[in-house]
Amino acid sequence: MDTRKVILTGDRPTGPLHLGHYTGALASRVRLQYDYRTYILIADLQALTDNAQRPEMVARAIKGVLLDNLAVGLDPEAVTFVLQSGVPELAELAQIYLNLVTLARLERNPTVKDEMREKGFGADVPAGFLAYPVSQAADITGFKADLVPVGEDQAPVIEQTREIVRRFNRLYGETLVMPEILVPRVGARLPGTDGQAKMSASLGNTINLSDTPEVVRENVMAMYTDPTRIRATDPGHVEDNPVFAYLDAFDEDKALVAGMKERYRSGTVGDVELKRHLAEVLERFLGPIRQRRVRYERRAEEVREILEVGTERGRAAVSETLEEVRGAIGLPMVRVRRKLLTNGG
Ligand code: TRP
Q1: Whether the predicted pLDDT of 330 surpasses 60
Q2: Mind spelling out the 3-state secondary structure of 4-58?
């Protein structure tokens, strides 16, 4: 029997994953994949909560997100990839949990508030978007997750799951597993190439895991550095300089980075040399990821299989939880014979 604790984590398929996803979430997934029973959810229904007008975009992004996860080294023999829309039991759990949160509590969630502002909904917030933390509580509890590794901006969402679990267990008896959040070490949040605090596709300041070497190089050479520095001989600022944030995150040679910071501060290294070095460092990191991606792209059938088999396995796990939840509430169980479900076939 597998006695390992359970991890559930997920991505919204809305486009290619980038370096910020890597430092914020993917790196800890890769590190923990053999120590925990890991489920990775491709949250297409959650992606639709703010992309209802763009379903093709979401559908198209599913395969890319799966490939991004495989490319960074998640082992399909070890982890289970699940497509959210393939597990309708999650929607039923979410429907039940919706009664355990207030509208005011949903509106107070800091993550949701920030995202609503970023997406510019104005007064037209889709109800499904406001309630996505409830659907995410269904994801987390449905898989009986002990641990949820996410980026720090997701912390309030996981906190809301914990409140729902507490409320459910108090009302209906100890049923749901209480999840813990695992946020990566401080400094894991990567700024954008333009120096904004967050790397994000909607801000157009990303370096994607699937970018070609040429695109990466161009992006790095155009990066924001230190606006107060006119000439290479001027003393420069290392703080709030995204080039150094990236070097801290991706350059293994810490002594070399420390030396470069020193030289930057004293005005003896120019932006061009610095950026050339960063481009090399990123290429060393992204090269193997790109190669692995190409290998999987060549085996399309196998990749499809990974998601199909994983989704089936995920569905079995969530169905079990849903039965327990229905039982705890005392919902009448109407047994539908398998024959009817499969339409006699
Ligand atoms: N909301 C998460 C994000 O935007 C994605 C997600 C969906 C998720 N379901 C999840 C994360 C369950 C952790 C657990 O990144």
Answers
A1: yes
A2: CCEEEEEECCCCCCEHHHHHHHHHHHHHHCCCCEEEEEECHHHHHCCCCCCHHHH
Nearest CA to ligand 1 atom 3: 11
The closest-lying atom of ligand 1 relative to the alpha carbon of residue 135 is 9
CA of 17 to the centre of ligand 1 (A): 13
- State which ligand 1 atom lies nearest to the alpha carbon of 46: 7
State the Cα–Cα distance between residues 268 and 275, nearest whole angstrom. Answer: 14
Atom of ligand 1 at shortest range from CA of 12: 5
**Quick one: which of 20, 22, 14, 21 has its CA closest to 42?**
14
Q: How far is the CA of 74 from the centre of ligand 1 (A)?
A: 17
Tell me the CA–centroid distance for residue 257 and ligand 1, in Å.
Answer: 33
For atom 6 of ligand 1, the residue with the nearest CA is 10
pLDDT score of 343 = 66
pLDDT score at 168: 98
Rounded to the nearest angstrom, the distance between the alpha carbon of 12 and the centre of ligand 1 is 7
The β-bridge partners of 6 are: 37
Answer yes or no: pTM beyond 0.90: yes
Q: For 188-209, what is the mean pLDDT? A: 92
| Cα 149 to ligand 1 centre (Å) | 9
pLDDT digits (tens, 9 = 90+) for 227-244: 888 888 899 999 989 999
Q: Where are the beta strands (DSSP E) in 68-205?
A: 80-83, 147-149, 180-182
The reported pLDDT for the residue numbered 336 is 65
179 to 5, 145, 197: CA distances (angstroms): 11, 6, 28
| Listed residue (126, 42, 158) closest to 90, CA to CA | 42
